[in-house]
Amino acid sequence: MNNTRKIVGGCQCGAVRYSIAFLGRSSVCHCRMCQRAFGSFYAALVIANELSWTHGERCLFASSNVSQRGFCGDCGTPLSLENFDDDQVEIATGTLDDPELAPPSLQINHRFACTFSDSIGDLPVPNEETIAGNDEWNAKVISHQKP
Known about the structure:
Elements: E1 7-10, E2 17-29, H1 32-38, E3 43-55, E4 59-61, E5 67-71, E6 78-83, E7 89-92, E8 106-108, H2 128-140
Parallel strand pairs: 2-8
Antiparallel strand pairs: 1-2, 2-3, 3-7, 4-5, 5-6, 6-7
């Protein structure tokens, strides 16, 4: 998954930032550790080749005997999954400034998936009135997230 665009990202408060030369495999992992680490049904991750931490320092938590997870100590944003036995680092796809650069191409540990996760895309979308109300509400929001 080579890209000519600048690949950068970071946490929601801006304390930790990174740059990536090129992206590798993008996936979603359904394992229970990823579910807990992300507070979600699965974790969207992309292999970060030639990763540089460009601003601030991530905190690390050894989530198992084989890997550690990086996160922002200020805002708590999950940032990375890093294996102890190799140099592979996976970045949380949602922390990319442009997550559209890394559409998932694979599900990992699918046998641990929540029973409803495969049908999330089938859920109904709001009607036009609800969408307009959401847009009105969102227009009032002043985000404190960076960048």
